[in-house]
Specification:
The complex is a heterotrimer of chains A (225), B (259) and C (256).
Chain A (H helix, E strand, L loop, with lengths): L6 E3 L4 E3 L9 E4 L2 E4 L3 E6 L2 E6 L11 E9 L3 E5 L6 E4 L12 H4 L5 E9 L5 E4 L6 E3 L3 E4 L5 H5 L4 H10 L2 E4 L4 E5 L2 H17 L5 H16 L1
Parallel strand pairs in A: 9-11
Antiparallel strand pairs in A: 1-5, 2-4, 3-4, 5-6, 7-8, 7-10, 8-9, 10-11, 10-12, 13-15, 14-15
Chain B lengths: L7 H12 L15 E5 L7 E7 L2 E12 L10 E7 L15 H16 L9 E3 L3 E13 L4 H14 L2 E2 L10 E2 L7 E8 L2 E4 L3 H6 L2 E7 L5 E7 L6 H22 L3
Helix pairs in contact in B: 2-3
Chain C lengths: L9 E2 L2 E2 L11 E5 L7 E7 L2 E11 L13 E8 L14 H14 L12 E10 L4 H15 L9 E8 L2 E4 L3 H6 L2 E7 L5 E4 L2 E2 L3 H32 L3 H6 L7 E2 L1
Parallel strand pairs in C: 6-7
Antiparallel strand pairs in C: 1-2, 3-4, 4-5, 5-7, 8-9, 8-10, 10-11, 10-12
Helix pairs in contact in C: 1-2, 2-4
Classes of the chains: A alpha+beta (225), B alpha+beta (259), C alpha+beta (256).
Chain lengths: 225, 259, 256
């Protein structure tokens, strides 16, 4: 009854009779391991985990996310981070010392930011920070959204997929853990980037994807020149 | 998806495209998304249609039952139009009584059917002053990906055109097809960045400054209009939108609703 | 429309619609049919046509409804005006409130709500055409929609009813059998046989009730296989490179 590499499973499917195999996306009952999710069962290093096909983004400390300012209170910006939970960006976490009255001037409603998740408590209160050179507000380029469950595939093992894309597409690309992606470059390059990201999102579960994308990119470049 | 908050980057991107004369979908400004129309999908209803306009999906059901006429029109049938913007169709729809958007949509669909005189209401009299056929048009939104107005209107007329009056069920004679004598078609355009575009998708609707729906009849006359949205529209744009609406109406009528 | 006299529901072991006593009506299941919803399922069970959608986990409004340690589950069952014989006034009535409650209670036991404190998982079922068994159809569709939305669950839930006509227990009664038969007993259960929905109206001896439960359980088991097959088939539909290349619009990609 062993479910191994890349089998589609549904919640409640029996994955293993060995409770020690239980990894992410699974649960143990009566010493047996079952799937919690609709997704791909994947055996890796003695653990079976189920990779979901869909699902919302749940913030974790340390994640870098792309957010949109949705409200401004006395000393906090309320940030939409594409999650059931909103992020709070306290005025002290802005890289510059500013007055509370100046808050809308620096980050107004609808502004996009790249922020780090500073802390998440047990009630899912999410604190964000911009105190880092890499972080800040996004003014140029485009921000697109994919299903957060596809982010690992877009990044690839050790960054293999994303690094290839950055190089081949000649674009600045940043993938937020929350499924939002910032792209900046020339119009045609960004258009192509969007197309590729869409293909990756749809085919995240298939094998040989990196090669297929590489091939696709080569053909597009030939077509363009 | 960020439904309640409109990002500046999104607005800028759409504006940037508009300046280049483009839309995110690659459509031209007067181009409709792919339309699919299936009628007679709900057998229990007397008429029905499922409309897909791009990813927007709307189901319309028609039920025809005998009932009392309105006192001021004792010899004609009655049309009652309702729209349910059910929460299943969008994160922006909440359960509860119809909101002003739902009511506006229903009334506009109704206006198209009624003002074009598409239904021969005199033929729907059973017993003058006492009994007439009541035609219920119920719009049920399934997936709001923009422009539920045109989808609902198309569904309504398609459902009516394929409806049967169930006279036998009520011992009032033989069943007969609902008498439809005109085919109103609604077309909607939104304005953004000084440019107007037809059949807005959800993004285009969210950035729209204003919106104009025009309902035209088979002979190219206008039988209904509604401008919505809190911004002003120039007369020039209104003229041009109306011209295109008439053409679009013809196209859609010929392609999907030809008798 | 009332029928006079005694109708015979069984003739030579076959029911009015040609089925055997332990046969389900034909079922059709389509996964992921709506774009706005996080998960969705269109399901037909005989002449029943239902659409289920799941939104969530998402923020709870109004705030005071939220629970600090887990997600709350809401279920709204609604019938379209044109779904029934006589046009129904839109909006909830007492029956739809009851169906919503028991349906929610049929699914909640398997949903891992502790993963999502202070949020809500909203389940919506719209009945587009009704023909006895809409609540079981709705629960079946909702279960698939929940999986489609990526909601963690201990297992799927499947639902089926048993009825009694002409002294015989039958599986998945259709409208005539429900209206003019002697009993209707809808159940929902996990594939391992734990019951999460149980209702009954009519007249059954204890022996008949137990037989009905067995019959309904077998129906649930068959439905579970169909739900699973639909979910697995849907996955293999995804990822057609050619189709993506030619796609005009970037589906799923939204510039925000």
């Amino acid at each position: 009854m062993d479910r191994t590499d890349r089998d589609v499973v549904v919640p409640g499917d029996l994955l293993s009779e060995n409770p020690r195999d239980s990894g992410e996306g699974t649960y143990v009952k009566d010493d047996k391991v079952y799937s919690l999710l609709y997704g791909l069962a994947n055996r890796r290093r003695d653990k079976i985990r189920v990779i979901p096909l869909a699902g919302k983004y749940t913030p974790s400390t340390g994640d870098i996310v792309i957010g949109i300012i949705s409200d401004i209170t006395f000393s906090n910006w309320i940030v939409n981070i594409n999650s059931p939970y909103e992020g709070l960006l306290h005025i002290s976490e802005y890289p510059k010392r500013i007055e509370t009255t100046e808050m809308p001037k620096y980050l107004s409603m609808g502004s996009s930011i790249m922020a780090r998740v500073k802390d998440v408590d047990s009630t899912m209160k999410v604190e964000l920070t911009l105190n880092d050179k890499r972080l800040g507000s996004l003014k140029k380029g485009r921000v697109i959204e994919i299903s957060p469950s596809r982010v690992p595939r877009l990044i690839g093992k050790g960054g293999s997929m994303i690094n290839m894309l950055k190089k081949e597409l000649d674009c600045n690309i940043f993938v937020g853990q929350n499924g939002r992606i910032w792209v900046n470059g020339r119009d045609e390059d960004m258009d192509l980037a969007l197309k590729i990201i869409h293909i990756i999102e749809t085919e995240a579960h298939t094998s040989g994807l990196t090669d297929r994308i590489s091939e696709f990119l080569k053909n597009e470049k030939i077509a363009r020149s | 998806m960020s439904d309640d908050v409109l990002s500046e980057i999104k607005k800028d991107y759409l504006y940037h495209l508009v300046l280049k004369g483009e839309r995110t979908s690659g459509r031209s400004f007067d181009q409709y998304r792919e339309i699919s129309l299936e009628t007679d999908v709900i057998k229990k209803a007397d008429g029905s249609a499922l409309v897909k306009l791009g990813k927007t999906q709307v189901m319309v059901g028609v039920k025809i039952q005998p009932g009392e006429p309105y006192p001021d029109t004792p010899n004609t049938g009655v049309i009652i139009t309702n729209a349910e913007l059910v929460p299943l169709a969008s994160p922006c729809f909440e359960p509860g009584p119809p909101t002003e958007y739902g009511i506006e949509l229903a009334r506009l669909v109704d206006r198209g059917i009624r003002e074009s005189k598409s239904l021969d209401l005199e033929a729907l009299c059973i017993e003058p002053g006492k009994n007439v056929w009541i035609v219920f048009i119920d719009v049920h939104i399934l997936d709001d990906c923009g422009n539920i107005m045109d989808a609902s209107s198309l569904g309504a007329i398609a459902a009516l055109m394929t409806a049967t009056v169930p006279a036998e069920q009520y011992n009032l004679g033989e069943d007969f097809p609902l008498p439809v004598r005109d085919i109103p078609v609604a077309t909607t355009a939104t304005e953004f960045g000084g440019v107007f575009m037809f059949d807005p998708d959800s993004d285009e609707e969210s950035v729209a400054d204003t919106k104009l729906t025009v309902i035209t009849t088979s002979d190219g006359a206008i039988c209904g209009m509604q401008k919505s949205g809190a911004n002003a529209m120039s007369q020039d744009h209104i003229h041009r939108i109306v011209d295109i609406s008439c053409e679009k109406g013809m196209e859609i009528r010929e392609k999907f609703l030809d008798v | 429309m009332r029928m006079n006299g005694d109708i015979s529901f069984l003739k030579d072991g076959f029911r009015l619609d040609g089925r055997r006593p332990d046969e389900l009506r034909p079922i059709k299941i389509e996964v992921g049919v709506l774009s706005r919803a996080d998960g969705s399922c269109y399901l037909e069970m005989g002449n029943n046509k239902v659409m289920a959608a799941v939104y969530g986990p998402r923020e709870v409004h109004p705030r005071h409804l939220q629970e600090v340690t887990r997600a709350i589950v809401r279920f709204r069952y609604n019938m379209a005006s044109f779904s029934v014989e006589e046009r129904k006034r839109p909006g909830p009535d007492r029956r739809s409130h009851e169906v919503s409650k028991v349906s929610r209670e049929a699914l909640a036991p398997v949903i891992q709500t502790s993963y999502f404190p202070r949020s809500v998982i909203d389940i919506f079922v719209e009945v587009l055409q009704a023909d006895a068994g809409t609540r079981t159809a709705g629960i079946n569709a909702a279960s698939v929609a929940l999986a489609d939305a990526g909601i963690p669950m201990k297992s799927m839930i499947s639902a089926c009813a048993a009825g009694k006509v002409d002294g015989q227990i039958v599986m998945d009664p259709m409208k005539l059998e429900d209206n003019f038969g002697d009993a209707d007993m809808p159940i929902a259960m996990t594939p391992s046989g734990e019951i999460t929905l149980l209702q009954m109206d009519g007249n059954l001896t204890i022996r008949e009730m137990k037989e009905g439960l067995d019959v309904a359980k077998r129906g649930c088991q068959q439905i579970y296989e169909l739900q699973k097959a639909a979910l697995i088939e849907r996955y293999s539909r995804m990822g057609d490179l050619e189709r993506c290349k030619n796609a005009e619009s970037t589906q799923g990609i939204q510039v925000i």
